[in-house]
Amino acid sequence: MTDSVHRQERTTGAGGVLITPADLAGGGVRGDDPDIRGKFGVFGGRYVPEALIPALDEVAAEYEKAKTDLDFIREFDHLLRTYAGRPTTITEVPRFAEQAGGARMLLKREDLTHTGAHKINNVLGQALLTKRLGKTRVIAETGAGQHGVATATAAALMGLECVIYMGAVDCERQALNVARMKLLGATVVPVTNGSQTLKDAINEAFRDWVTNVDRTHYLFGTVAGPHPFPEIVRDFARVIGVEARRQVLELTGRLPDAVAAAVGGGSNAIGIFHAFLDDEDVQLHGYEAGGRGAENGEHALTLTKGSIGVLHGSRTYVLQDEEGQTIESHSISAGLDYPGVGPEHAWLKDSGRAVYHGVTDAEAMEAFSLLARTEGIIPAIESSHALAGALKLGRELGPEATILVNLSGRGDKDMGTAMKYFNL
Amino acid sequence: MTTLQTVFEKARAENRSALVGYLPAGFPSKDGAVAAATAMVEAGCDVIEIGLPYSDPLMDGPTIQDAVHRSLVNGTRISDVMRTVEGVAASGAATLVMTYWNPVDRYGAERFARDLASAGGAGTITPDLTPEESEPWLAASKEAGIDTVFLVAPSSPDERISRVASCCTGFVYAASLMGVTGARESVGSAAEGLVKRTRSHTSLPICVGLGVGNGRQAAEVAAYADGVIVGSAFIRRLLDAPDEKTGLAEVRELAQELARGVRR
Ligand SMILES: Cc1ncc(COP(=O)(O)O)c(C=O)c1O
């Protein structure tokens, strides 16, 4: 996209839309945009069967056209407003913040979107892209079930056939979401090989894609995978940070001191981080699932404990042994239970622009119940990792600080886990 | 060491296609893999691909996934893969390693190429390495004197075929259909067209894999390809056999049937 298109869009606007081409594409060619091979520094790229290269090229080419096509942008914007419920508000949570050393705490309420998590933003964008590609079938992987529910929802809305791959372990711990997907008309395929979680669901979705690629779009759910998924998913999730940045400025008259988000594959985190990348004084903190603790090996600390390798088509940080075999991750939260992570996060980590930490199951569950009791908001367990991180961060930064937290989803789906955990 | 070049020259002199058999290292057991591959060679396989078991084989169907999983549970390591190559190469077949990229990346490309060459390996097939990312592997393989085989697929446009073929030495692997590994009722109808298109971009031999499982299919493919690749059908025999001995006999029988196929 050329600069002149940006400038024009910024000054004229496109009929009061939420997002402009500039918002969508992150303000044009930036240092952090992937190059032609989809590389963020040494990370990213494409490590996939040759059979899929034409499909990835096709998706990339169509997205290049779409992101500067005002009709596409208007349609996406319209769906975000009238279907997903954007813009989502920010909510100040003073009673919760008392536990964070009195720092000012603002939550970006992605839990209030239709279907209950940030995943809907990416899904609506890619579903529109699917139609432009002339494909009639979408497939997706899901961990927590939120991406699966969002995909099934968009497929119902747009009349697309929909098949969702979900690890058998996740089907059990997120049973409510399995029922939702079925009700929405999707076929849910439980994946019983390997760790029976998100990683194996992705393997199975790739196998489906290579078999049915002529009529199928793989509606990838996070900023991982082969190019162009990390870029496309980021751009469609970018609206979270674009809105939040404006909202925080309006409310407080300045930028936040820190932004906090949970990191599974990394879509909600990149979605809120990206609009702040150039604001050098704003700290960016990502929180991975520490599971039962880093010491006993049962965690999903990909960026904090992993090493550089290739997983699911992308060079990034991976949990792997010394021979390159993937190590299974563990987390109480299905959406963070993944041994890989998006390549742009790997790049942000190595460049030092963002910092990543671990939060244990116990810390996340404590924040989960604390937000419920102090503010009347039940967060997703994934998002609770960001909340727990923000509590620690607030104590470090002190009472003058303002922290923006991405509340990526709501906790309805997690009631089964919560009932067991808290003996409710 | 028998090279791929020797294999294809010999097959051409005999006016037939070459037969390529696949088995993962460590399956049905560490020694069992060498025994099974040796039986395959004795019964007529010219080339053996030893699979390096990987935790996330996203190009493989249920049969190979199952075998690879068992192998990993048995504790197969890269050193076992190298030992398997050594054992199989001793049978006189050109021996390749078929591997996803991450284990090689982690082991170190140069070290892997060197160790494979010392084990008597003739080269590798890398199903998830594309030309864009292949630079380090091409350099390491060239240095170690081993071949690099990459895949083309029915979906590949001509410019991709040309690009992939230019990275290949030894032969070009043509995937017969859009899908994962596994024996099928019939070999994809796209295979012949793909081989024809690939010919116009390379003078290397072209082998067809995915979906071939019996002598009739082998004969069909041999009519237009320089080599016929069979994997899942061998593994199925081993998985279904009540014990390794029976499995070995079954594998030998299948290899004989396929060997007759490529000579028809
Ligand atoms: C509410 C919520 N937050 C976070 C995640 C983690 O994914 P990502 O890191 O891509 O945002 C998920 C994934 O399912 C989710 O449902």
Total individual domains of chain B: 1
Q: What oligomeric state do the depicted chains represent?
A: heterodimer
Q: Portion of residues in helices of chain B? A: 40-55%
In CATH, the architecture of the largest domain in chain A is 3-Layer(aba) Sandwich
Write down the CATH topology of the largest domain in chain A: Rossmann fold
Point out poorly predicted stretches of chain B.
Answer: none
Shape of chain A: globular
The CATH homology group name of chain B:
Aldolase class I
Number of DSSP E strands of chain A: 15
Identify the biggest protein-protein contact and residues per side: A-B, 36 and 39 residues
Bound molecules: pyridoxal-5'-phosphate
Summarize the main sheet of chain B: 9 strands, parallel
Report the β-strand fraction of chain A as a percent range. 15-25%
The biggest beta sheet of chain A is recorded as: 7 strands, mixed
N-to-C terminal Cα separation of chain A, in Å?
53 Å
- Mean of all residue-level pLDDT scores of chain A: 93
> Strand share of the residues of chain B?
5-15%
- Gyration radius of chain B (Cα, Å) is 16 Å
Task: Walk me through the structure.
The complex is a heterodimer of chains A (424) and B (264). Chain A is α/β, with parallel strands linked by helices and 424 residues long. Chain A has two domains: 49-84 and 118-226, Rossmann fold, CATH 3.40.50.1100; 90-116 and 235-422, Rossmann fold (3-Layer(aba) Sandwich). Chain A contains 18 helices and 15 strands. Chain A has helices at 3-12, 21-25, 53-66, 70-82, 94-97, 119-132, 146-158, 168-173, 175-183, 198-212, 229-237, 239-252, 267-273, 302-305, 343-351, 361-375, 381-397, 415-422; strands at residues 39-40, 43-44, 90-92, 104-109, 137-142, 161-167, 187-191, 216-218, 258-262, 283-293, 298-300, 307-311, 314-318, 354-360, 402-407. In chain A, strands 3, 4, 9, 10, 11, 14 and 15 form a seven-stranded mixed β-sheet that branches. A four-stranded parallel β-sheet of chain A has the order 7-6-5-8, with helices on both faces. Chain B has a nine-stranded parallel β-sheet with strand order 5-4-3-2-1-9-8-7-6. Chain B has helices at 4-13, 30-42, 62-73, 78-89, 101-107, 109-118, 135-144, 158-167, 190-199, 215-222, 232-240, 244-263, and strands spanning 18-24, 47-51, 94-98, 123-125, 147-149, 151-152, 172-175, 206-209, 227-230. Chain B contains twelve helices and nine strands. Chain B has one domain: TIM Barrel (Alpha-Beta Barrel), CATH 3.20.20. Chain B has 264 residues and is α/β, with parallel strands linked by helices. Chains A and B meet through helix 3, helix 10 and strand 12 of A and helix 3, helix 5 and strand 6 of B. The complex binds pyridoxal-5'-phosphate. Pyridoxal-5'-phosphate binds at residues 117, 143-144, 146-147, 222, 262-269, 335-336, 380, 382-383, 408-409 of chain A.
